[in-house]
Amino acid sequence: MAEKRDYYEVLGVSKNASEDEIKKAYRKMARQYHPDVNKAADAEAKFKEVKEAYDVLSDSQQRARYDQYGHIDPNQGMGGGGFSGDFGGFGDIFDMFFGGGGRRDPNAPQRGNDLQYTMTVEFKEAVFGKETDITIPRTETCDTCHGSGAKPGTKPQTCSVCHGSGQQEVVQNTPFGRMVNRRSCSNCQGSGKIIKDRCGTCHGSGKVKKQRKIHVRIPAGVDDGAQLRMSGEGEGGLRGGPAGDLYIVIRVKPHEFFEREGDDIYCEVPLTFAQAALGDEIEIPTLTEKVKLKIPAGTQTGTFFRLKGKGVPKLRGMGQGDQHVRVVVVTPTKLSDEQKDLLRQFSSLEGDSGHGQDSSFFDRVKKAFRGE
């Protein structure tokens, strides 16, 4: 298996980076490698690597554990590989020396496994919410045998070797005394039951694979990477145990015009030189409509204007964020002879007036060229 890259290196941030720096780096790289935008063969793998790094570094507890142990799980035991061999783990070690005890009943109800489903939604669907149906493959309790695994009309029998406990005792005489080691019963594989006549539908497992249609409601304001939990929609439990949960991971497609930071929306709008110099009233597209924005005379490129309440609805709370509009003055590349003459006249007049309000800026530039 290939060695994992350092998470800080993946996001291109330092180890003392702030939460905001990590978040901004993630958003930038997620947009760059999103499979819906980047069609390169390795884009999806890089997107997953970036998401994995962000999931760890954005969580303070996981980040602290990663900073201390790196990619090694400290819960795995010595050498990162856990205990293995003849002892079979901590449970069997204590069984050998103290006679076992505390084992789970193999016939007790068991909760089903959780499932994860990744759903890709459009930018505006994440903003305004969406209701849809998804189809997922999952394991459910067999309707024929009702989860027993036995053919209808028959029942599983208690294992004659372990007498239903699911465990076998191995007694050893050692210099330290009589030792008892408990292991999973080899006759019933730890279930405590033997099925002689297996169910023809599930072949004795008590479970079957099915395609299940589920109605999903995505709340307005959900962001990329969010998880929706649907209780009881995971895999079916064993022996009457409850079903697991379904976790839906949201992936939001980038928008060609809008960018999102939390509950705020950002966009760039071009201005002509005349609009920026003389002022104007322009139309700005928002998430819901077009609105008028007044551009003051003398507006400089890079200036931000705020449209209050035109952002994303707050996921947990009332109101919504704002939209921030950054204006960019566009320099024309193709001019007619008449336009060139007019600009030369303007330049001449501007020179005579000392560049107007921007004279101090031009003075600073001249001093810099003179080395002052």
Automatic annotation (TrEMBL):
Binds 2 Zn(2+) ions per monomer. Residues 129-211 form the CR-type domain. CDD domains: DnaJ, DnaJ_C, DnaJ_zf. GO terms for biological process: DNA replication; protein refolding; response to heat. Zn(2+) 2 binds at C159, C162, C185, C188. Belongs to the DnaJ family. This is Chaperone protein DnaJ.
